Amino acid sequence: MIAIIDYDAGNIKSVEKALELLGEEVLLTRDPAQLLAAEKVILPGVGSFGDAMQNLKRYGLVEVIHEIVNQGTPFLGICLGLQLLFESSEESPGVQGLGVLKGKVLRFPPKEGFKIPHMGWNSLHLQNQGRLFQGIPEQSFVYFVHSFYLAASDASIVKATTEYTASVDAAVESGNIFACQFHPEKSSEVGLGILKNFARLGKEDC
After folding, report:
1. What is the mean pLDDT of the chain?
2. Cα–Cα distance for residue pair 117/130, rounded to 1 Å
3. 128 and 171 in contact (C-beta within 8 Å)?
4. Catalytic positions, please?
């Protein structure tokens, strides 16, 4: 069973529908016991970094997420969910992220001819043998919606990058932690393939 963390951050239903399309059993919940018992956990999200951290704290989920990660459960952050796993974001100065991974979330630098937020399809450069990308071709297109981008401190955890006024760390993996800046649930067959790879993972794979 895959649990999706429900913390009022949007984008939950589309993730749920994509997983159900793959035949997965899915539970939307913020109940700590259910999250800790799940075989895999997903942290989706769209919206403000600061508001999202406030919601996670209000529902007592910060400690729960750390416990899930520490017990080795495969954990996937999507879009804002990726950003929250890191230390901070220029969107919300002074707000600490979950700090599960090292790195900062930066504002896109302006560039003539490019609109912010970055909204649309971009191709991925795959690197460092990401487990989420097994069977996914190089330069596959996926769907992004974001105004801020990740700069990870450790380049070895970066499994996919893209370019949009800056070099964007589009996906990371570290042990049992996986995260995508793009929306696999909105990325057609490529996205379903990525979610299928996550759904097949067990603790022994992490």
Report:
1. 95
2. 26
3. no
4. 79, 183, 185
**Residue type for 110, please?**
P
**Rounded to an integer, what distance in angstroms lies between the CA atom of residue 139 and that of residue 145?**
18
Please give the tally of structural domains in the chain. Answer: 1
Q: What H or E segment, with its residue span, contains residue 41?
A: strand 40-43
Query: What's the average model confidence in pLDDT over 73-86?
Result: 97
CATH number at residue 185: 3.40.50.880
Gap between the Cα atoms of 108 and 34, Å rounded: 37
Query: Look-up: residue for tokens 């990870």?
Result: 152
Looking at residue 113, its pLDDT comes to 85
**Taking the model in full, what pTM does it have?**
0.96
DSSP letters for 135-180: TPPTT-EEEEEESEEEEES-GGGEEEEEESSSEEEEEEEETTEEEE
Q: How far apart are CA 197 and CA 184, in angstroms?
A: 11
Q: Domain containing 144: what range?
A: 2-205
**H helices present in the chain, as ranges:** 12-21, 32-37, 49-58, 61-70, 80-84, 188-200
What is the per-residue pLDDT across 122-149, written as a single tens digit (0 to 9) for each? 999 999 999 999 999 999 999 999 999 9
Contact 44, 8 (CB under 8 A): no
Joined together, the tokens standing for residue 191 give: 């996205």
SS3 call for 121: strand
